[in-house]
Amino acid sequence: GNKAGIARLVGKTIIPYAKTPANVIDELVEFSLPLYSLPKAGYAALAGDYRKAKILVGKALTGSTIIGVAKMLSDAGVIGGKPSDSEKTRDVQYQTLPPRTINITGLQRYAQGDSGELQPGDRVISLEKLGIVGGILSTVNSASEATATSESGFEVMSLLPETISFAFNQSFLKGTNSLLSAMLDGEGAKLDKWISDYYGVIASIPFPNTLSAVSRSMRETMPDKIQIKDVEGEGPDRYINLFGEILKRRLPGMDEDIARRVDIWGRDVPQTPEGADPVAYNFLDVTKGREVAYDKITIGVYRLFKETEDGDVIPPKPGRNFTLGDATYRLNPDLYEEYARAR
Questions:
Q1: How far apart are CA 162 and CA 142, in angstroms?
Q2: Residue 268 DSSP one-character state
Q3: CB-hemisphere CA count at 13 Å for 72?
Q4: pLDDT for 179-230, tens place per residue?
Q5: Which of 20, 41, 190, 222 is most buried when burial is the number of CB atoms within 10 A of its CB?
């Protein structure tokens, strides 16, 4: 009926290609999990498909080698972990060694026998666009962190959930990933992110992503994230206003009156990392290379967090809601920006 047609339309905008997610995950798992690819090679050989069997054995051997290297680099501390669920922790991650990146300068020091520990001025690049090798480096590091407190230590099988997580964070599957997170979250930041991402997909139809890249290259600081609770109106009017908020952040020169994003230190968050060229970074550099800023306090907090795995060592971000007596009040984006800066 009508409802089924609408559901099908919405589903197609979230999952662009029916077979792509399974194919991407299967390809990654064949490399990152030899215990998966070797039995498949055996079945292929029994079926007489010796070419496929040889390819699968080759993937298992190649993957095993990369896993060994990835585990060594993970232990050296040159690979960034997954994005934290905590906003304040993500603040520190993106100011130091961002999630799913590799510290190239630290890797060079490590190769020469020195420490790979993060230092100011180190150059880091993203792993998300580096194919199978980048995927394995990221997933092995995440699996190592996830099993760090386990008595049995790192296990190859722990790579499976991390591989699936990495695959779903590829650009063409992010809609699916954010939807699943929103469904589990029910309400709050993850639901807000999915709604704004979904409207962003719709906005990209009449307004190409190139315009968004132009907008990012033109502005110096990031606008505040869209807060669904702060969008005015009811019913259809609210959705129209939400679409307007999306366009302000996507179209060049339209975000000047929007509150800016503020970090845990009360400072503006730069749109383009310090030292990077705005045009090259936003248009050309698929690795999103950047240099770690010379901020010894933030790097010190990052090192302490990595050593203790305790989020309480990071200063808290101010909340948007506060309570007086029995009443709860919410700061609008402009007031929240002023409050966050005054800390």
A1: 7
A2: B
A3: 9
A4: 444 444 545 555 566 566 666 666 666 667 788 889 999 999 999 988 888 8
A5: 41
Q: How far apart (Å, rounded) are the C-alpha atoms in residues 37 and 61?
A: 10
Name the pLDDT band for 112 (thresholds 50, 70, 90): very high
Q: What is the Cα–Cα distance from 184 to 191, expressed in whole angstroms?
A: 9
Separation of alpha carbons 178 and 191, rounded Å: 8
Residue 123 β-bridge partners: 291
What percentage of the chain reaches a pLDDT higher than 70? 75
Residue with tokens 């290609």: 17
CB 205 within 8 A of CB 250: no
Kind and range of the H or E run holding 125: strand 123-126
Quote the tokens at residue 148. 């760090």
Domains of the chain: which residue ranges? 1-79+127-168
pLDDT digits (tens, 9 = 90+) for 132-164: 888 888 888 877 776 665 555 555 566 666 676
162: which residues sit within 8 A by CB, 6+ positions away?
138, 139, 140, 142, 143, 146
Q: Of all residues in the chain, what percent are helix, strand and coil, respectively (each to 5)? A: 60, 5, 35
List, in order, residues 6 or more apart from 175 with CB less than 8 Å away.
13, 14, 15, 16, 197, 198, 201
Asked if 4 contacts 142 with a C-beta cutoff of 8 angstroms, the reply is: no
Closest CA relative to residue 340, chosen from 224, 251, 244: 224
Q: What would the pLDDT profile of 65-104 be if each residue is shown by its tens digit?
A: 988 898 899 889 899 988 888 889 999 999 999 988 999 9
CA distances (Å), origin 151, targets 146, 148, 310: 12, 8, 19
**Looking at residue 182, what is its pLDDT?**
45
Tell the residue number behind the tokens 């800023």, with chain if given.
293
- List, in sequence order, every residue forming a beta bridge with 33; answer none if it has no partner: none
